[in-house]
Structure formats: C-alpha cells, structure tokens
Amino acid sequence: MILSFHIEYRTSWGEEVRVLGSILELGNNQPGKAIPLQTVDGIHWTLDADIQAPENGIVQYSYHIYRDGKDTRTEWNSLPRTLYVSADKKKVYRLQDCWKNLPEQQYFYTSAFTESLLAHPERNAAPKSHKKGLLIKAYAPCIDNDHCLGICGNQKVLGDWDADKAVLMSDANFPEWQVEVDASKISFPLEYKFILYNKKERRAVAWENNPNRYMADPQIGVNETLVIGDRYVYFALPDWKGAGVAVPIFSLRSEKSFGVGDFGDLKQMIDWAVLTRQKAVQILPINDTTMTHTWTDSYPYNSISIYAFHPMYADLKQMGTLKDKKAMAEFNKRQKELNALPTVDYEAVNQTKWEFFRLIYKQEGEQVLASDAFRKFFENNKEWLQPYAVFSYLRDAYKTPNFREWPKFTEYKAEEIEKLCQPESADYPHIAIYFFIQFHLHLQLLAATEHARANGVVLKGDIPIGISRNSVEAWTEPYYFNLNGQAGAPPDDFSVNGQNWGFPTYNWDVMEKDGYSWWMKRFRKMSEYFDAYRIDHILGFFRIWEIPMHAVHGLLGQFVPALPMTREEIEGYGMAFREDFFTKPYIHEYFLGQMFGPHTDYVKQTFIEPTETWEIYRMRPEFDTQRKVEAYFAGKTDEDSIWIRDGLYALISDVLFVPDREDPHKFHPRIGVQHDYIYRALNDWEKAAFNRLYDQYYYHRHNEFWREQAMKKLPQLTQSTRMLVCGEDLGMIPDCVAWVMNDLRILSLEIQRMPKDPSQEFGHPDWYPYRSVCTISTHDMSTLRGWWEEDFQQTQRYYNTMLGHYGAAPAVATPELCEQVVRNHLYSNSILCILSLQDWMAMDGKWRNPNVQEERINVPANPRHYWRYRMHLTLEQLMKAESLNEKIKGLIEQTGRKG
C-alpha cells in the first residue's frame, strides 16, 4: 500500500518538512524517527511511503519542521490527522494536505466540547472505501449529536444541489468529518458545499457560509483514493454560550457528607447543574495539603503533592461499611454532629475520617491492594504515589513536613524509598494505607468525571501556580525550584501590601532543558479527571513576583525574570542617583508620630536609631528586616503589638528602589512606592521623573521580553492535553499577556469590578471578548451581596451607572438587584458565564443565606485565613429549591446560554 504525501510549506534555508505517524514506516510516533519529505523548490514537499496496512486499519500522522536534525516547529496536533485505510495491499492514498495552525476557534476542539458539551457518544463507522475514491475531510466541531455534516454539489452522487439528498459524512473521528465518494461517478469539475443536517427531522437546516468549493479534474487513478483534508466549515448560527457554577468541593453539603464536601457530593452538584441547564462545574484545587494536621492546612493552594488528592474528599460510604457495628454506629453519630456545623471543622473532620480510614484499611486493605484494578492504578501512578506515601508517613513519624529537619531521608534517594515500599518492609503497612486511600479517591473522582461527561457537563479544575517548599516535589526534585525566594503577587485591589504566598519560585532554565516534562506530566494527569482547567495566576508563566526571604510583605519583591535598571539608566530619566537615600528605608521624625502615635518614643528607643543627619533615623541592626521584626513580635497578638509591628514593616519597605537579586548594582523601582513617605520626600521634578521611569518600567519595558518567556513555555503546555484552558489574568497585567493568550486561544477571566481597562471603574459585560469566562466574584473576593455592603459610594455609582437606576442605592443587595446583575452577566459576550454558588442563590430571598458574612471563602490579605465556608443548604434541599431552580433555568434559556 502506498501513502503519497503532498503538502505545501514555504521553508527557510536549512529547514525540511518531515512526517511522523503511528505506524513503523512513519516512525512509530518516535520524534527522532520522523521521515523527511522531498522538494525541488522548498515549497512543494512530497513523499511516497510503502506501508503494511495496520491491523486496526488506522494511520495517524502529523507534519513537523526540522532544522539541523531538531524539531523546531510542529503543526497543531491535538487532533492527529486520521486516515482509515482499506485492507487492499495495492491501494494508493494520495494525501493533499495543508499545514495546520492552531484553529481560531480552538476551544471547540478541546475535550470540554468533544467529550462533554457537544459529545458524539455513538459514532458512525469509518467511511466506506471505493476502488476509485475521493475522500473529503472537514473540521466542524460545533455540531451536536442530533445533527451531522453533509456535502451537496453539482453531481448526482452529491444530490444535484438538493440539500435533502446530500451525502452525509461520518463522525468516526469527530470533530473531523469524513466521507469517501465514488470518483468514477463524478464528472469534473466538481462544485460543492457543506450542509448541516438534522438527523431526527431528516432534513438540511443550513448551508455553509461560503462560496461554492471547486475542484478541477485531479486525475484519480484506478485503485487510488485522493484525500482532501484540512477544510474548516462554518455556519451562520448563534454563538455557542454556556453557564456554570463555581464552588469548592469542601463547601458542598449533603445529608450524607461528613462535615465537609466530598467526591460523592460532587456528583450531586453535577445533577443540580443538569437540572438548572448549567454546563460547567468549577472547583478549587483538591490536592493534599496535610502538613501539620491543624486548620492551617485548609489553604488549598499550598499542597504537599501536585498529584495526590486530599484524603478528606473521600466519600466514606463508597469505601465500604465497617463490620464492627458498634464502631459504625459511632461514626454515623459523629457524621451527624460534624455535618450539622455551619462551617468546616477541618481538624475534627480529618481526625475522624482518618480513624475510619485505618479501620476500613484493616478490614479491606489486603483484598483491595491485591485486586487487578489497584495493580493497574499503582503501575500507572507509581512514579508519584510512592514518594507521596513515604513523605506522608515520614512527615507524621518525624512530626514535621520540613524534610530538611528529618533525622533520616532528608535527601531523596529513589532506591531507599523503593525499599520502604516493599510489602516485606516493616514500614509498609503505614505507607500502603496511602496507596489504598489514593486509589479510592481516584475511583470516586473518575466516577464524578464520567457522570459529568455523560450529562454534558464540563468539570473544570484549578492548577495552582505554586508548590510548597515542604512538599514531595521540593523533596524529590529540588533542582526545579529556587528555594531561596518566595513567590507572591504585587499590590492590587485584594491586598495593598501585595501577597506573599511563601512558595519557592521555578527554575525555568532547568525545566526548559527537559522540555518542561514536570509540567507536562502534571497537566496530563489532570486531564484524566477534568475537561477544562483554570491556570491560577497565569502571569507566573510570564514572570513571577519574587520576594526576598527576609521580607514578610510583598512590597519589597521584584519580577523574575526582569530587566533591572542601571544607575546610568535611572539618571537618564533626570534623577541624580543617591544609592543610600534611594535603597535604604527613609525614616523621618515628622511622620513617626503619625505612624506610631502613643508608641513613638518606645519605637525610637527600641527599634530605630538616629543617624548623622538631623531628624533622620535608621533601623537598628537587630530589627533591619521584616523577618527579624516578625520574630520579635511572634505570639504577641494584642492591638498595640500589631500596630507597632505593622508600622515597622512599613518603615522597612519605605524605599524607592530594590536592588536586583543577582546584580546588586542594578535596581528595580519599588512597587506602589507613590503611597509612601520616601516618594513624598522627592521634589516635584524628581517625582515627575520617577513617575516616567516607573510607568516605562512596569508597563512597557518588559512587554517583548515577557512575551518571549511565556511563548517558550505555554504553547507546549497548553497543547499537551485537550483540556479547555482558562487563564486567571487578574492584577497588574502587562500588554503582552493579552497578546499571548490571544495567540494560544486561552480564555481570559472577566470580572466587572476588576476591569482590564484602567480608565473604567466597572467592566461592561457586553464588551467582553467571546473567548473569555465572566463572573461576578471569585473565591478571593467578597460575594456580590458582600461587595454591595463594603463601600457605599462605589455601590451607589454602580447602582446608577451600571444598573441604570435613579436615586439612592439600597443598603443591601436585594434579590431583585442580584437577579439584574446575574442577568446582565448571562447576557455578556463571554462564551462561559460561571458564577459562584452564593451569587446564584443571591437571587432568591427564600433560599439565600440570611448571613451574608458567612459566604466569604478567602481573604487574600490574610495569609493565615481559615478556608471553611460551607453552603448553608444541603444539596438535597438545593435540588428541591423550585423557585430558585426555575429562575436559573428561565434566565439561562432567556439569555441563550443553554449550550
């Protein structure tokens, strides 16, 4: 059998086109074995490959550009080119291909659409082959299961332009459609169009929005099939739009949950989405965060493993029933007590669940670990599962997650860990319980995923940008991280001092050397359970805000990587460079009283000392960093101590420039310094010069540089799976972020109270880009009702300008006002409108939480926030909340968001 490849690609000098495929003759999908094509003009490339017909009758392939033996460019390959071949050994397939770039509507080709929203669960057979065939292939993802693609044209075999007699195409490789026409029955030239056909009504409902497609006689030989591919088909139909709900799993409450939401409850939340015609359920990260077994582990973005799930999400009922009836009765009693609490009691829930795990493991463990299903799971996940289980065991045995302080195993050695994981090892029972729990969590989440897909609902996960410095990854792969820095975020609406997450930053240079395999594996694992994901703080792939270890707040950070400024550059803006004045804390007599009030003398005597300059002070050496101050005030929680401590933090960050982390002779303007005393100490000329420098540095200087950084990483990461990618692009956004997200077809996040245009106070939902997710509030913000009561003047402006009402705004957000805000968002231009459960419920006075303060999930300004919000209704009550559910269903229908 001959596969004759033909592709037009204008190469540069030194480049060549190669083809890589799923069969031995095309390299068996091994990149080093791609087969070169030939050319005479550097534009038209061909190859005749003599192949054995594969047993399954399928050949998949893709084109690549090579230079000096290296793959420098790959065409879009999320959906490999697929050819169904006959068993005829003498058959010739002539493949006329075009290079595939990332489609403009790439989101429709993701698994969110092809496996869930517009899935075709029962596919047609592959197209029937002909002795002399014309195989036409076309991409059309926006076709649901009740419709199919057809071809109608100027030939009897294509219906003679009668759309109802069109030849229907196979969805065997959906979202690509294929049909093979008997070429002996075609009298060329051929003209045709694609049509949309309703299978139930058996009629054509739309013609493609294009002039006729034309083909001159291609001289198809006997026993030859000409394959025409890479057609994209569009119909003049309304844009697809959907709605969804965002809720952390720990916040779910059902009658059977154990004081915290679990993977069993997630299935019920999906049922509610189906009932109300919602198309997406978005959750927060679900990885194990257990470090101290206290409530401080409740922070879901600080995980000890990027793979392992948190044991508290296990649905105990699915794990089995204890044969000890007395013990089971005690657990049932505890379940009722914990489930009656208004919020999550993190410590009690985890302690109780662990008691159950130990008992059920003792009862069922041996049998489960001997099962074929477990063995398969273990083999597929051994690479992360063993280190995680051993880490968790040693953390508890040595009573600290900080592996640097362990008496043994401080340095990870794979062979030592392998020994501990052998069944004959004395430690094995303590380690294998983690295998047992993770296996159950895997099965339970997979069941929820399959339930979502079967019901046309997308499950959307969350990939945190950071990892904990006391985590399995930091222990096993420390070379991937800079453990001497802290990741965070510059100041924004959430936090005036910036955020210090405490995570190490990434060593991107090392990650680049192995093709970002650490990230690729992480994304691929996630795609087993999710069809869409949110990249937390997508800006971290352009640059990360790195804070020195001696700082507590985020103000003394700098972007990494960045282009720091030399002394000469700074002076080029018209500022005489005074290193000590610009880089050391500016402490002047005149403002000490304003900052410290009655404590001023105590501060002068204890923490600062005078300099040679009159009325100017400096920090005493024992208090010259924020960490030293933090240590001095550790455990002091009275108001006065906090007042003094925070004032000292502010003094230490009162600098105009921060030295570069690698070159102390280069500098970064300190973020947000315009609000501080050192800035006020400048004269008007210097302020104007500094403002020009600051604006150029933060908003223009790095655009191309940061775009290059992101384009090194994000293309292959976002295309390593078929999940729908959504970026959390909030905060201080350089222009290059929008360029890259647009190029890679990543959905942006649009929030009305955080508009991307700084000249607007509020965003306009009807101006949002189609390629976006819009929402009213996120887990890091107050809910709609909470926000309404925070700043009355702002609320008043919103009430008058955005909602179009006259007069004074009500003091609280009434159900009617909430409904108006929700409706406006549902009418937005965004492809997805995903609202928090609290904001959906705000529309119904009967069902919403009477206490608005209980609805807040996180306060980013507080790094020690307790994440414990739970919905005040049970999921069973929510399913029966008819007035609310009908309202949501009606709004989704009315605003055209029923998918």
UniProtKB/TrEMBL annotation:
CDD domains in the record: CBM20, CBM20_DPE2_repeat2
GO molecular function, one term: 4-alpha-glucanotransferase activity
Occurrences of domain CBM20 (ranges): 1-101, 126-242
Gene3D superfamilies on file: Glycosidases, Immunoglobulins
One GO BP annotation of this record: carbohydrate metabolic process
Entry's Gene Ontology cellular component terms: cytoplasm
Main localization, broad class: cytoplasm
Keywords, in A-Z order: Carbohydrate metabolism, Cytoplasm, Glycosyltransferase, Transferase
Subcellular location as annotated: Cytoplasm
Top-rank taxon: Bacteria
InterPro entries from the UniProt entry: Carb-bd-like_fold (IPR013784), CBM20 (IPR002044), CBM20_DPE2_2 (IPR034841), GH (IPR017853), Glyco_hydro_77 (IPR003385), Ig-like_fold (IPR013783)
Catalysed transformations (reactions): Transfers a segment of a (1->4)-alpha-D-glucan to a new position in an acceptor, which may be glucose or a (1->4)-alpha-D-glucan
EC number: 2.4.1.25
Name of one Pfam family that matches: CBM_20
Family note: Belongs to the disproportionating enzyme family.
Name recorded for this polypeptide: 4-alpha-glucanotransferase
Organism from which the protein derives: Bacteroides cellulosilyticus
